[in-house]
């Protein structure tokens, strides 16, 4: 591999979160498959770094976890609803893992641990 050769981009299986109805359905579905909510501010370099680090370490199949991405700049009201439904105070970037309609993991910024999330699936 040459000095200027880039690694090919890996497409991450994010499901965009765009509505309140979708959020409520995902929480209901968490009884069948865990749901990871990842809140990301597309204008924040710290958020981009956390998201990239998370994606690089993720190795679960899409059938093991619903990975849901919330673009905070476009859907800030949904972040408020997540806080109301889960009791987890808003931060960005933030990862919240829901299983059986209960929050089993939450952290933000550099505390987001892909390894820990994977062990909880």
How is this structure best described in words?
With 121 residues, the chain is an alpha/beta fold. It has one domain: Glutaredoxin, CATH 3.40.30.10. The chain has helices spanning 20-29, 45-57, 76-86, 114-120; strands at 15-16, 35-40, 66-71, 94-99, 102-108. It has a five-stranded mixed β-sheet, with helices on both faces.
For the record, the CATH architecture stands as 3-Layer(aba) Sandwich
Note the gap between the termini: 35 Å
Structural class: alpha/beta
Would you count the extended β strands for me? Answer: 5
CATH top level class name: Alpha Beta
Protein topology:
Layout: E1 15-16, H1 20-29, E2 35-40, H2 45-57, E3 66-71, H3 76-86, E4 94-99, E5 102-108, H4 114-120
Parallel strand pairs: 1-3, 2-3
Antiparallel strand pairs: 2-4, 4-5
Summary of the model, kept short:
The chain has helices at residues 20-29, 45-57, 76-86, 114-120, and strands at residues 15-16, 35-40, 66-71, 94-99, 102-108. With 121 residues, it is of the alpha/beta class. The protein has a single domain, classed as 3-Layer(aba) Sandwich (Glutaredoxin), CATH 3.40.30.
Features of the shown structure:
single chain; 121 residues; alpha/beta; Glutaredoxin
